[in-house]
Amino acid sequence: QERLVESGGGLVQPGGSLRLSCVGSMGTFSDYVMGWFRQASGKEREFVAAISWRRGHTDYGDSVQGRFTTSRDDAKNTVYLQMNNLKSEDTAIYYCAAKRHDYYNTIDQEYNNWGQGTQVTVSS
């Protein structure tokens, strides 16, 4: 009931933008905190962004603050990650994840449900 599918990744030049989407199969999508994480080749998994069901409650990793924005459309069971001013350092596989409780939203171990990931490559 909690399958997550990411989409929207691809190749983009530095300074460009992409919007990732994550669709959840669960009918109670609005009850979940939705997070975004990424993992570059040879690197540890890194927190990117998270959004709860509470209005205006979002978190962002330091490396993406001011450039990325996450939002959700619960009617569509979808969370988005708008990525602007992309840098080569943003190249990674991006994962969406879901959890029930609205705390420790930046910690990957707190999430129980994960998507398969979508590749984002920023290169000239």
Alpha-beta content class: mainly beta
Query: How many individual helices?
Result: 0
Biggest sheet, in brief?
A: 7 strands, mixed
**Molecular shape:** globular
Verbal overview:
- A hairpin with a 4-residue loop joins β7 and β8 (78-83).
- Helix content is 0%, strand content 46%.
- The strands form two sheets. Strands 2, 4, 5, 6, 9, 10 and 11 form a seven-stranded mixed sheet that branches. A four-stranded antiparallel sheet has the order 1-3-8-7, with no helix packed on it.
- It is globular.
- The chain has no helices and eleven strands.
Write the SSE topology.
Layout: E1 4-7, E2 10-12, E3 18-24, E4 33-39, E5 46-51, E6 58-60, E7 68-73, E8 78-83, E9 92-99, E10 113-114, E11 118-122
Parallel strand pairs: 2-11
Antiparallel strand pairs: 1-3, 3-8, 4-5, 4-9, 5-6, 7-8, 9-10, 9-11
Give a short overview:
By secondary structure, this protein is an all-beta fold. The protein has strands at residues 4-7, 10-12, 18-24, 33-39, 46-51, 58-60, 68-73, 78-83, 92-99, 113-114, 118-122.
